[in-house]
Amino acid sequence: MATQNQINNINMSRVLRSIWLNRGCSRADMCRDLGLNKSTVTKNVQILLDGGIAEEIREGDSSPLGGRRPVALGIRQDFCYIMGMEIQTEFYRAVICNARGEVVFTRANRLKESEYSLLDQFRHSIEELQPFIDEYGVKGIALGISGVVNAHEGIIRHSMSFGIKTPFPFSEAATKIAGVPVLVENDANCCCWGDLAGQLSDREENSLFLLSEFRDQNLRNTGHPSLSVGMGLVLRGQVHYGKDYSAGEFTSVLKAAGQPGQFSQSPEELGRNWKEQNQVMKTILEIGRNTAFLVNTLNLSRIVVGGVLQDYSEDVRRILMECIQESWPYEGEVRCQIEFSSRGDFTVANGACGFYLEKMFGLPDVESPGDKGWEFLQSSLSL
Fold this sequence. Notes:
Blueprint: H1 4-21, H2 27-34, H3 38-50, E1 54-59, E2 71-75, E3 81-87, E4 91-98, E5 103-110, H4 118-136, E6 138-145, E7 148-150, E8 155-158, H5 170-178, E9 182-186, H6 187-199, E10 207-216, E11 225-235, E12 238-239, H7 267-273, H8 277-298, E13 302-307, H9 313-326, E14 337-340, H10 347-361, H11 373-381
Parallel strand pairs: 3-6, 6-9, 10-13, 13-14
Antiparallel strand pairs: 1-2, 3-4, 4-5, 7-8, 10-11, 11-12
Protein backbone atom coordinates (compact mmCIF):
# COMPACT_ATOMS: atom_id res chain seq x y z
CA MET A 1 0.00 0.00 0.00
CA ALA A 2 1.27 3.45 -0.92
CA THR A 3 2.37 5.77 1.87
CA GLN A 4 0.99 9.30 2.17
CA ASN A 5 4.30 10.67 0.94
CA GLN A 6 4.09 8.49 -2.18
CA ILE A 7 0.50 9.59 -2.78
CA ASN A 8 1.53 13.25 -2.46
CA ASN A 9 4.40 12.67 -4.89
CA ILE A 10 2.11 11.00 -7.42
CA ASN A 11 -0.51 13.75 -7.15
CA MET A 12 2.13 16.43 -7.64
CA SER A 13 3.49 14.52 -10.63
CA ARG A 14 0.00 14.30 -12.13
CA VAL A 15 -0.49 18.06 -11.80
CA LEU A 16 2.98 18.74 -13.22
CA ARG A 17 2.39 16.42 -16.17
CA SER A 18 -1.03 17.93 -16.89
CA ILE A 19 0.46 21.42 -17.13
CA TRP A 20 3.24 20.13 -19.41
CA LEU A 21 0.99 18.19 -21.77
CA ASN A 22 -1.90 20.68 -21.80
CA ARG A 23 -0.41 24.16 -21.98
CA GLY A 24 -3.23 26.58 -21.22
CA CYS A 25 -5.08 24.28 -18.80
CA SER A 26 -6.58 25.78 -15.64
CA ARG A 27 -6.85 24.60 -12.06
CA ALA A 28 -10.50 23.77 -12.69
CA ASP A 29 -9.51 21.68 -15.75
CA MET A 30 -7.13 19.64 -13.62
CA CYS A 31 -9.70 19.09 -10.86
CA ARG A 32 -12.09 17.73 -13.47
CA ASP A 33 -9.64 15.73 -15.60
CA LEU A 34 -7.50 14.30 -12.80
CA GLY A 35 -10.28 13.72 -10.29
CA LEU A 36 -8.41 15.66 -7.61
CA ASN A 37 -10.02 18.01 -5.12
CA LYS A 38 -9.58 21.75 -5.41
CA SER A 39 -7.34 22.12 -2.36
CA THR A 40 -4.86 19.49 -3.64
CA VAL A 41 -4.61 21.09 -7.08
CA THR A 42 -4.37 24.62 -5.67
CA LYS A 43 -1.60 23.65 -3.23
CA ASN A 44 0.45 21.79 -5.84
CA VAL A 45 0.08 24.49 -8.47
CA GLN A 46 1.25 27.10 -5.96
CA ILE A 47 4.37 25.06 -5.22
CA LEU A 48 5.15 24.95 -8.93
CA LEU A 49 4.52 28.69 -9.32
CA ASP A 50 6.66 29.56 -6.29
CA GLY A 51 9.45 27.32 -7.61
CA GLY A 52 9.48 29.06 -10.99
CA ILE A 53 8.55 25.82 -12.77
CA ALA A 54 5.06 26.82 -13.89
CA GLU A 55 3.64 30.20 -14.83
CA GLU A 56 0.25 31.83 -15.27
CA ILE A 57 0.03 32.70 -18.96
CA ARG A 58 -3.41 34.29 -19.41
CA GLU A 59 -6.96 34.46 -18.20
CA GLY A 60 -9.51 32.30 -19.96
CA ASP A 61 -13.14 33.08 -20.73
CA SER A 62 -15.64 32.95 -17.92
CA SER A 63 -18.48 30.45 -18.09
CA PRO A 64 -21.94 31.42 -19.44
CA LEU A 65 -23.05 31.73 -15.83
CA GLY A 66 -20.35 34.32 -15.14
CA GLY A 67 -18.02 34.10 -12.19
CA ARG A 68 -14.26 34.28 -11.91
CA ARG A 69 -12.26 33.73 -15.10
CA PRO A 70 -10.03 30.63 -15.05
CA VAL A 71 -6.29 31.28 -15.18
CA ALA A 72 -4.38 29.31 -17.82
CA LEU A 73 -1.12 27.64 -16.77
CA GLY A 74 2.02 26.51 -18.56
CA ILE A 75 5.55 25.29 -17.91
CA ARG A 76 8.13 28.09 -17.87
CA GLN A 77 10.38 27.51 -20.83
CA ASP A 78 13.51 28.79 -19.10
CA PHE A 79 13.18 27.09 -15.73
CA CYS A 80 15.75 24.53 -16.89
CA TYR A 81 17.76 23.47 -19.94
CA ILE A 82 18.74 19.92 -20.83
CA MET A 83 21.11 18.43 -23.39
CA GLY A 84 20.35 15.54 -25.72
CA MET A 85 23.21 13.70 -27.42
CA GLU A 86 23.82 11.01 -29.99
CA ILE A 87 27.20 9.31 -30.12
CA GLN A 88 28.13 7.09 -33.03
CA THR A 89 31.50 5.49 -33.69
CA GLU A 90 32.78 8.44 -35.71
CA PHE A 91 30.93 11.56 -34.49
CA TYR A 92 28.59 13.10 -31.94
CA ARG A 93 25.55 15.34 -32.28
CA ALA A 94 24.13 17.44 -29.45
CA VAL A 95 21.19 19.75 -28.87
CA ILE A 96 20.13 21.85 -25.91
CA CYS A 97 16.40 22.22 -25.26
CA ASN A 98 14.39 24.31 -22.85
CA ALA A 99 11.75 22.81 -20.57
CA ARG A 100 9.17 22.86 -23.36
CA GLY A 101 11.41 20.85 -25.66
CA GLU A 102 12.26 23.79 -27.91
CA VAL A 103 15.80 23.56 -29.35
CA VAL A 104 18.04 26.53 -28.54
CA PHE A 105 21.44 25.08 -29.54
CA THR A 106 22.85 22.43 -31.88
CA ARG A 107 26.38 21.13 -32.38
CA ALA A 108 27.96 18.24 -34.29
CA ASN A 109 31.59 17.21 -34.66
CA ARG A 110 33.79 14.24 -35.40
CA LEU A 111 35.12 12.21 -32.51
CA LYS A 112 38.68 11.29 -31.62
CA GLU A 113 40.47 8.32 -33.12
CA SER A 114 38.82 4.91 -32.91
CA GLU A 115 40.91 3.40 -30.12
CA TYR A 116 38.86 5.23 -27.49
CA SER A 117 35.95 3.61 -25.62
CA LEU A 118 32.39 4.96 -25.53
CA LEU A 119 33.02 6.50 -22.12
CA ASP A 120 36.18 8.19 -23.43
CA GLN A 121 34.24 9.51 -26.42
CA PHE A 122 31.59 10.86 -24.07
CA ARG A 123 34.27 12.56 -21.98
CA HIS A 124 35.87 14.18 -25.05
CA SER A 125 32.46 15.37 -26.26
CA ILE A 126 31.57 16.90 -22.89
CA GLU A 127 34.90 18.70 -22.72
CA GLU A 128 34.18 20.30 -26.09
CA LEU A 129 30.58 21.12 -25.15
CA GLN A 130 31.36 22.39 -21.63
CA PRO A 131 31.25 26.13 -22.51
CA PHE A 132 27.71 25.73 -23.85
CA ILE A 133 26.66 23.53 -20.92
CA ASP A 134 27.82 26.32 -18.60
CA GLU A 135 26.26 29.08 -20.70
CA TYR A 136 22.78 27.55 -20.58
CA GLY A 137 23.15 26.06 -17.11
CA VAL A 138 22.30 22.58 -18.38
CA LYS A 139 20.78 20.52 -15.56
CA GLY A 140 20.78 17.08 -17.16
CA ILE A 141 22.00 15.11 -20.18
CA ALA A 142 20.48 12.18 -22.06
CA LEU A 143 22.42 10.09 -24.56
CA GLY A 144 21.04 7.94 -27.36
CA ILE A 145 23.19 5.09 -28.72
CA SER A 146 22.69 1.93 -30.75
CA GLY A 147 22.39 -1.23 -28.69
CA VAL A 148 20.33 -2.87 -25.97
CA VAL A 149 19.88 -0.40 -23.12
CA ASN A 150 18.21 -0.70 -19.73
CA ALA A 151 17.08 2.91 -19.67
CA HIS A 152 15.54 2.65 -16.20
CA GLU A 153 18.85 1.78 -14.57
CA GLY A 154 21.20 3.52 -17.01
CA ILE A 155 22.89 0.28 -18.04
CA ILE A 156 24.08 -0.55 -21.55
CA ARG A 157 23.54 -4.29 -21.80
CA HIS A 158 24.98 -4.79 -25.28
CA SER A 159 26.26 -2.63 -28.14
CA MET A 160 27.98 -4.13 -31.17
CA SER A 161 29.12 -0.73 -32.43
CA PHE A 162 30.96 0.09 -29.21
CA GLY A 163 32.16 -3.42 -28.37
CA ILE A 164 30.06 -3.66 -25.19
CA LYS A 165 29.29 -7.33 -24.51
CA THR A 166 28.54 -7.32 -20.78
CA PRO A 167 26.29 -4.91 -18.80
CA PHE A 168 27.99 -1.54 -18.35
CA PRO A 169 26.57 1.00 -15.80
CA PHE A 170 27.08 3.93 -18.16
CA SER A 171 24.85 6.52 -16.42
CA GLU A 172 26.73 6.19 -13.15
CA ALA A 173 30.14 6.66 -14.79
CA ALA A 174 28.97 9.41 -17.16
CA THR A 175 27.31 11.41 -14.37
CA LYS A 176 30.66 11.62 -12.59
CA ILE A 177 32.23 12.98 -15.77
CA ALA A 178 29.53 15.52 -16.60
CA GLY A 179 28.72 16.69 -13.08
CA VAL A 180 24.98 16.55 -13.84
CA PRO A 181 22.60 13.56 -14.12
CA VAL A 182 23.18 11.55 -17.31
CA LEU A 183 20.57 9.18 -18.73
CA VAL A 184 21.12 6.69 -21.55
CA GLU A 185 18.61 5.19 -23.96
CA ASN A 186 18.53 3.22 -27.20
CA ASP A 187 18.66 5.58 -30.20
CA ALA A 188 15.42 4.41 -31.85
CA ASN A 189 13.62 4.59 -28.52
CA CYS A 190 14.91 8.16 -28.12
CA CYS A 191 13.20 8.97 -31.42
CA CYS A 192 9.94 7.62 -29.99
CA TRP A 193 10.25 9.75 -26.87
CA GLY A 194 11.00 12.84 -28.93
CA ASP A 195 8.01 12.15 -31.13
CA LEU A 196 5.74 11.67 -28.10
CA ALA A 197 7.02 14.86 -26.47
CA GLY A 198 6.23 16.79 -29.65
CA GLN A 199 2.66 15.50 -29.71
CA LEU A 200 1.99 16.54 -26.09
CA SER A 201 -1.61 15.59 -25.20
CA ASP A 202 -2.52 14.40 -28.73
CA ARG A 203 -0.37 11.27 -28.54
CA GLU A 204 -0.82 8.43 -30.97
CA GLU A 205 -1.06 5.38 -28.74
CA ASN A 206 0.31 2.66 -31.06
CA SER A 207 3.10 3.61 -33.43
CA LEU A 208 6.52 2.68 -34.77
CA PHE A 209 9.61 4.82 -35.35
CA LEU A 210 11.85 3.55 -38.15
CA LEU A 211 15.39 4.91 -37.73
CA SER A 212 17.83 4.40 -40.61
CA GLU A 213 21.43 5.60 -40.50
CA PHE A 214 24.72 4.90 -42.22
CA ARG A 215 27.26 4.09 -39.55
CA ASP A 216 30.47 2.19 -39.00
CA GLN A 217 29.69 -1.30 -37.77
CA ASN A 218 32.38 -1.34 -35.09
CA LEU A 219 34.36 1.21 -33.09
CA ARG A 220 37.57 -0.64 -33.98
CA ASN A 221 36.79 -0.85 -37.70
CA THR A 222 35.92 2.67 -38.83
CA GLY A 223 35.67 3.76 -42.41
CA HIS A 224 33.36 0.91 -43.43
CA PRO A 225 29.84 2.30 -43.03
CA SER A 226 26.67 0.41 -43.90
CA LEU A 227 22.96 0.95 -43.45
CA SER A 228 21.75 0.32 -39.92
CA VAL A 229 18.05 0.15 -39.03
CA GLY A 230 16.49 0.34 -35.59
CA MET A 231 12.86 0.30 -34.59
CA GLY A 232 11.15 1.92 -31.63
CA LEU A 233 7.68 0.72 -30.63
CA VAL A 234 5.06 2.78 -28.83
CA LEU A 235 2.22 0.69 -27.38
CA ARG A 236 -0.61 2.27 -25.41
CA GLY A 237 1.22 5.58 -25.33
CA GLN A 238 4.47 4.24 -23.85
CA VAL A 239 7.73 3.08 -25.38
CA HIS A 240 7.78 -0.72 -25.32
CA TYR A 241 11.02 -2.23 -23.99
CA GLY A 242 10.28 -5.92 -23.64
CA LYS A 243 11.49 -8.13 -20.80
CA ASP A 244 15.20 -7.74 -21.62
CA TYR A 245 15.03 -4.21 -23.11
CA SER A 246 15.67 -5.58 -26.60
CA ALA A 247 12.32 -4.70 -28.19
CA GLY A 248 12.91 -3.01 -31.56
CA GLU A 249 16.21 -4.72 -32.34
CA PHE A 250 15.89 -5.40 -36.06
CA THR A 251 17.07 -8.28 -38.20
CA SER A 252 15.30 -9.00 -41.49
CA VAL A 253 13.38 -12.28 -41.70
CA LEU A 254 14.81 -12.57 -45.22
CA LYS A 255 18.42 -12.78 -44.00
CA ALA A 256 20.07 -16.17 -44.34
CA ALA A 257 21.09 -17.93 -41.13
CA GLY A 258 24.65 -17.14 -40.09
CA GLN A 259 25.02 -14.17 -42.45
CA PRO A 260 26.32 -10.99 -40.77
CA GLY A 261 24.36 -7.75 -40.63
CA GLN A 262 20.66 -7.01 -40.61
CA PHE A 263 19.68 -7.66 -44.23
CA SER A 264 19.70 -10.36 -46.88
CA GLN A 265 22.94 -8.78 -48.17
CA SER A 266 26.15 -8.39 -46.17
CA PRO A 267 26.92 -4.99 -44.60
CA GLU A 268 29.90 -4.55 -46.96
CA GLU A 269 27.84 -5.26 -50.06
CA LEU A 270 25.02 -3.03 -48.92
CA GLY A 271 27.36 -0.13 -48.14
CA ARG A 272 29.21 -0.51 -51.44
CA ASN A 273 26.11 -0.63 -53.64
CA TRP A 274 23.76 1.67 -51.75
CA LYS A 275 23.67 4.49 -54.30
CA GLU A 276 22.46 2.18 -57.06
CA GLN A 277 18.72 2.68 -57.63
CA ASN A 278 17.96 -1.05 -57.78
CA GLN A 279 19.80 -1.61 -54.51
CA VAL A 280 17.93 1.19 -52.76
CA MET A 281 14.52 -0.06 -53.89
CA LYS A 282 15.41 -3.65 -52.95
CA THR A 283 16.40 -2.61 -49.45
CA ILE A 284 13.32 -0.42 -48.95
CA LEU A 285 11.17 -3.36 -50.05
CA GLU A 286 12.91 -5.64 -47.55
CA ILE A 287 12.32 -3.10 -44.79
CA GLY A 288 8.72 -2.69 -45.95
CA ARG A 289 7.95 -6.40 -45.72
CA ASN A 290 9.34 -6.63 -42.22
CA THR A 291 7.54 -3.47 -41.12
CA ALA A 292 4.21 -4.59 -42.60
CA PHE A 293 4.26 -7.69 -40.41
CA LEU A 294 4.53 -5.54 -37.28
CA VAL A 295 1.95 -3.00 -38.41
CA ASN A 296 -0.72 -5.59 -39.09
CA THR A 297 0.13 -7.89 -36.19
CA LEU A 298 0.11 -5.10 -33.60
CA ASN A 299 -2.52 -2.94 -35.34
CA LEU A 300 -0.23 0.10 -35.42
CA SER A 301 -1.80 3.30 -36.67
CA ARG A 302 1.30 5.40 -37.38
CA ILE A 303 4.85 5.02 -38.71
CA VAL A 304 7.46 7.78 -38.41
CA VAL A 305 10.55 7.45 -40.62
CA GLY A 306 13.83 9.17 -39.75
CA GLY A 307 17.35 9.16 -41.16
CA VAL A 308 18.66 7.98 -44.54
CA LEU A 309 15.29 6.74 -45.82
CA GLN A 310 13.92 10.28 -45.71
CA ASP A 311 15.89 10.98 -48.89
CA TYR A 312 13.56 8.53 -50.65
CA SER A 313 10.34 9.61 -48.97
CA GLU A 314 7.98 9.08 -51.93
CA ASP A 315 9.29 5.56 -52.60
CA VAL A 316 9.32 4.71 -48.90
CA ARG A 317 5.73 5.83 -48.41
CA ARG A 318 4.52 3.96 -51.49
CA ILE A 319 6.39 0.72 -50.77
CA LEU A 320 5.46 0.66 -47.08
CA MET A 321 1.78 1.10 -47.86
CA GLU A 322 1.90 -1.54 -50.60
CA CYS A 323 3.55 -4.04 -48.26
CA ILE A 324 1.14 -3.29 -45.43
CA GLN A 325 -1.87 -3.69 -47.68
CA GLU A 326 -0.56 -6.86 -49.36
CA SER A 327 -0.01 -8.58 -46.02
CA TRP A 328 -3.49 -7.70 -44.72
CA PRO A 329 -5.74 -10.79 -45.02
CA TYR A 330 -9.12 -9.04 -45.02
CA GLU A 331 -11.03 -6.71 -47.30
CA GLY A 332 -10.73 -2.97 -46.85
CA GLU A 333 -7.82 -0.58 -46.63
CA VAL A 334 -5.42 -0.61 -43.71
CA ARG A 335 -5.35 2.79 -42.05
CA CYS A 336 -1.78 3.55 -41.08
CA GLN A 337 -0.36 7.05 -41.25
CA ILE A 338 3.20 7.37 -42.57
CA GLU A 339 5.18 10.47 -41.61
CA PHE A 340 8.79 11.64 -41.80
CA SER A 341 10.76 13.19 -38.98
CA SER A 342 11.27 16.94 -39.14
CA ARG A 343 14.44 16.87 -36.99
CA GLY A 344 16.86 15.80 -39.73
CA ASP A 345 20.33 14.75 -38.58
CA PHE A 346 19.49 15.70 -34.97
CA THR A 347 16.52 13.34 -34.65
CA VAL A 348 18.19 11.08 -32.07
CA ALA A 349 19.72 13.95 -30.06
CA ASN A 350 16.42 15.79 -30.00
CA GLY A 351 14.69 12.55 -29.01
CA ALA A 352 17.12 12.14 -26.12
CA CYS A 353 15.85 15.50 -24.81
CA GLY A 354 12.34 14.11 -25.13
CA PHE A 355 13.38 11.13 -23.03
CA TYR A 356 14.71 13.41 -20.29
CA LEU A 357 11.54 15.51 -20.38
CA GLU A 358 9.47 12.33 -20.00
CA LYS A 359 11.47 11.52 -16.88
CA MET A 360 10.82 14.96 -15.40
CA PHE A 361 7.14 15.14 -16.32
CA GLY A 362 6.23 11.44 -16.22
CA LEU A 363 4.09 9.56 -13.74
CA PRO A 364 6.05 7.54 -11.15
CA ASP A 365 5.35 3.97 -10.15
CA VAL A 366 4.60 3.23 -6.52
CA GLU A 367 7.41 0.66 -6.51
CA SER A 368 10.01 3.12 -7.88
CA PRO A 369 8.72 6.64 -7.08
CA GLY A 370 12.00 8.44 -7.82
CA ASP A 371 12.24 7.10 -11.37
CA LYS A 372 9.92 9.72 -12.88
CA GLY A 373 7.99 12.85 -12.09
CA TRP A 374 8.21 15.28 -9.23
CA GLU A 375 10.76 13.38 -7.15
CA PHE A 376 13.05 12.88 -10.14
CA LEU A 377 12.73 16.55 -11.10
CA GLN A 378 13.59 17.65 -7.58
CA SER A 379 16.65 15.42 -7.33
CA SER A 380 17.99 16.20 -10.82
CA LEU A 381 17.55 19.95 -10.40
CA SER A 382 18.54 19.98 -6.71
CA LEU A 383 15.30 21.75 -5.77
